[in-house]
Specification:
By secondary structure, the chain is of the alpha/beta class. It has ten helices and 14 strands.
């Protein structure tokens, strides 16, 4: 065994860094990965945040069924309590029930808004000792995604049922969602959908992130954002340039950019004429770090968003204009 190891080291010393990494000696994430879905599996829908548009919710359910899945939800999902979909206790019990149900293979959400952070202390810790399920969301669900990643789960950043999965959900969005649910191997290179590098470089790291305002809200909580050796994904909506600058400054002052390997940003601008001001803010904050930065990645608060996994290894390479997932997010059934 010792001779074999010495030979392995000798071989590796002759290799370039890239060739060394291709030997799979580089440690990948230690995330707990859910099982891949198959057609006919049961998806549960919960409302952990704000009330939602019922007709749009029903359209989203139709889309999931057309994609080949069964769908379930609790009758009290339609409850309203001011700006919340019922009491904290109702929403926490709903999520706990879906996590505990062995037939439920994936959990999606009616919408974001606000309220998910309020129920995280009410979740039953023993449920996370079981096999992980696919959990998918964005916006306010960022808090839950961070919470689950702290527990080691791979999670998914993608559309909610009552806003995004309706009749206008494009083939691109459907294909991306299905790949995320069904594909056991790494997603590989992401095709160019308008995203572009605004700062050069090449790096690898575990992808983490979500809605920028919710990332800020995570600071000093048990599910606080951790960017060490990570590639950070950020996005948000209806935030003026000075607010984006303020939030990035907050993360920087909190030490969250130390050890950061790269950044992928969704579009902050709503008009083409506004893009450059947001790009200049990102360049100012991340240029001094000498890390690659991508802007206008199509995931987040926009129509037909791409679904992407958090908690797996990703590579950014500006020379090849490449964003590539190197690691699968799912286990085979």
């Amino acid at each position: 065994m010792l001779i074999f190891l010495l030979q392995r080291v000798k071989i590796c010393l002759k290799l370039s860094i890239d060739e060394f990494q291709k030997l799979n000696i580089v440690k990948k994430s230690m995330a707990l990965k859910p099982l891949a879905l198959k057609k006919g599996d049961l998806i549960a829908v919960a409302a952990t945040a704000s009330p939602f548009d019922v007709p749009e919710f029903e359209k989203g359910l139709v889309t999931l069924k057309e994609l080949g899945f069964r769908v379930t939800y609790r009758k009290d999902i339609f409850e309203k309590r001011a700006f919340l979909a019922g009491t904290d206790e109702r929403r926490a019990e709903e999520l706990n029930q879906h996590l505990a149900d062995p037939e439920v293979r994936a959990i999606l959400f009616a919408r974001g808004g606000w309220g998910t952070s309020r129920i995280l202390p009410l979740l039953k810790k023993d449920l996370f000792e079981k096999k992980p399920k696919i959990v998918l969301g964005y916006s306010d669900l960022t808090s839950l995604l961070l919470y689950l990643q702290k527990l080691g789960w791979t999670v998914f950043h993608g559309p909610v049922v009552a806003k995004g999965l309706g009749e206008n959900f494009s083939d691109r969005g459907k294909n991306s969602l299905l790949r995320a649910f069904l594909q056991k191997v790494a997603l590989g290179p992401i095709s160019n959908e308008g995203q572009h590098f605004i700062l050069p470089g090449k790096s690898r790291g575990i992808l983490i992130g979500g809605c920028l305002s919710l990332l800020i809200s995570s600071l000093k909580t048990p599910w606080e954002l951790d960017c060490e050796n990570k590639i950070l994904f950020i996005e948000d909506i209806n935030e003026a340039p000075y607010k984006i600058d303020r939030m990035l400054t907050h993360l920087s002052l909190a030490g969250k950019f130390e050890g950061l390997k790269g950044v992928i940003s969704g579009p902050f601008h709503s008009k083409a004429s506004e893009e450059e001001v947001y790009v200049s803010i990102l360049r100012e904050h991340f240029g001094k770090l000498k890390i690659p930065v991508v802007y206008n990645f199509p995931s987040g608060h926009l129509n037909n968003m791409l679904t992407i996994p958090f908690g797996v290894e990703l590579e950014l390479d500006s020379n090849e204009s490449r964003i590539e997932f190197l690691e699968g997010a799912l286990h085979a059934a």
